Every structure is written in C-alpha cells, then in structure tokens.
Amino acid sequence: MSMRGRHLDAYSMYKRGTREHGFDAFDKEQGPERSLNGVGKDIGVPSWKRSLRHVLVATLSSFLYGYHLGVVNETLESISRDLGFHGNTMAEGLVVSTCLGGAFVGSLFSGLIADGVGRRRALQLCALPMIIGASMSATAKSLWAMLLGRLFVGTGMGIGPAVAALYVTEVSPAYVRGTYGSFTQIATGLGLMGSLFIGFPAKAIEGWWRICFWASVAPAAILALFMEFSVESPHWLFKRGRAADAEAEFEKLLGGPYVKSAMAELSKSDRGDEADTFKFSELLYGHHRKVVFIGSTLFALQQLSGINAVFYFSSTVFETAGVPSESANMCVGIANLLGSFVAMILMDRLGRKVLLIGSFSGMLCLGFVFGS
C-alpha cells in the first residue's frame, strides 16, 4: 500500500525526535518486572484500553485518506458526464491526480505544523481542508471547481496520516505500539472499501457521486470535534517545556503508577537528543544517509508496484476485461484489509524488518507469476 511509506516517514520523523535508545529501552524494560522507582516492585503493564479511544479518533484521518483515494473510482464516469468532460482523458486524470498534488504540498508542512501547534491541533487542521474540499467537490458545477475541491482535500490528505502515525506512536503503550500503529493502515483500508461500496449506485442514480463526496464530511467533522477531547502527545508537551502537562497526559494514557517511569524515559531520550544533534544535510550526506536511502527506496518501490492505479482506475480496468467492477473492487478492498490485519497481528511478534522482507518477496513472486 502506498500509505505505508507515508506512515514510515512519520515514524522516522518521530524516531529522529526521540532517538532510538530512549524508547527502545522503554520497549525492552516495560514488562512484569518493570518497577516504578527501581525498587523491584511488580506493577505489570499499563492498560491498553486507556489510550485506545485516542488512537481510534486519530486514525479517522487515515480513514479519510483511504476514502478520498477511492471515491473517484466508481464515480469518475458519472462526474465526467455531469461536468461535461466525458472522454477527455486529460481532464479525468486531473480529477484523479490533483488531490495527490495537494497531498504533496500538505506533506511538506506536516512536520512543521505538528511540531508548531501540537499533534491534536494538527489533526484538527487537516480535517478543515477535507471538509471544505469535499463540500466544494460535492457542489461543483464545472471541472475547475472539482479540481479546486480535490486540491483542498489533498492538502488535508498530506497532513493527516503522517501526523496520525506520529500521534499514535507517541500515545501508545510500548507493548502494543506496533499493533496500534497498524490501526492507521486498517483505517485506510476501511476508508477505501467504504468509498468503493458507497460508489456502486453512481452509474445507476444520477447525481449520486455528489452524495459520495458529502459522505466524507461527517468523519472529517467528527475528527475535528473529538480531537478536542483527546489527549495531547506527552512527548510534544515535554519538548515544549510543559513537563507538568506531560505528566497529566501520561496519567490519562497509562495510569498513575506508570507516570514516573514514563517521564524518566522521556527525560532520558531528551538528553540523548541534546547530545546527538545533527543538521538536515546529514540526512543526505552524513551517517543517516543509509537509512534515508533504504526508506525512500522502499516507498518508491511501493509506488512502482502500480497499486495506486488499481485504487483509482480498477473499475475501468475490470470492465474492459469483462469482469463486473463491483465484485472485483470489493475483492481488492478485502484483500488489502486482510493484509492490514495480518500486519497488525504480527507486527509486535515478528518485527518490522521481517514483515517488510516478507511482503516485498510476496510482491516479487506475484509479479513474476502474472508477468509470465
């Protein structure tokens, strides 16, 4: 999936902010023998239920990302007829790709926004252009109005998933961090399936495509509203010099007995940041270049797999091949969702590296099979 590369970038940004030794140590030490003040008292692990609702709210941005990826799949033909550009492949391609241009712009500023106003406000800000853009697309009377709406939506798409992945990582207990991280991918898959499902009547009911765009306004509004009642990232608060607020948020996320140990690990990682500063140029030329190169290459390979073409144009491709688009698209969505569930189950058991090697090996084998 193309979204994993974006989530990987967000996770890398988070690791640059906290450094691996700090939270890797927290991952290893968290367990039945983890003590509160180093005296060996057995306090177990914090409940995963405390942070779950905050994680679920944040993943609405990933749901919207997936929804807007697939919303033009079933509806593109109806949109082109109603807005007067049917048969113009250039215009149809612009309707599909304009949101990606907006996403590129949004992604350039996602890190600055998340660090400047906090994770909660950043997620609320990403919901705003999605609401405006979806409303503009739903009421569009011309191609240019549709393109402008898609551009607004794309801006939110560029900001949201990256910040969501960062937020989920920072508010999750260490022992379920990988599992919770997979929620963003599952939400993307659900959004994609939702857009395909709601788009089925578009070819039979005139103007249904407008309903498809209006439908995305509701989850965007819920995201903006519910983030107001969600916790802020303790890591962001601590780095802004608001240690007392960070403790309060840790208490909501982990429970009182775990606050001191969490703050100790946070202080440890912050000292590591000060001792190991680096310039942005080192990402390209310094000792970080290998990691950057590998991460960028993995993301590029995901795009070259052609998965985005499937999400955007599968209806046309399947119909050309004589396959009913409704059933074929649902199979694509289900397969994508099942893969996300597999990743969620195995993420904390096998590790990230093993899953990456296994998934890319599977893609390679399938490529040889279908290519031959």
TrEMBL record:
GO terms for molecular function: hexose transmembrane transporter activity. Residues 54-372 form the Major facilitator superfamily (MFS) profile domain. The keyword Transport applies. It is a multi-pass membrane protein. It is found in: Membrane. InterPro entries: GLUT, MFS_dom, MFS_sugar_transport-like, MFS_trans_sf, Sugar/inositol_transpt, Sugar_transporter_CS. Keywords: Membrane, Transmembrane, Transmembrane helix, Transport. One of its GO terms (cellular component) is membrane. The chain crosses the membrane at residues 55-73, 93-113, 151-168, 180-202, 208-231, 291-315, 354-371. It comes from the Eukaryota. Coiled coil: none annotated. Its main location: membrane. PANTHER family: PLASTIDIC GLUCOSE TRANSPORTER 3-RELATED (PTHR23503:SF114), SOLUTE CARRIER FAMILY 2 (PTHR23503). This is Major facilitator superfamily (MFS) profile domain-containing protein.
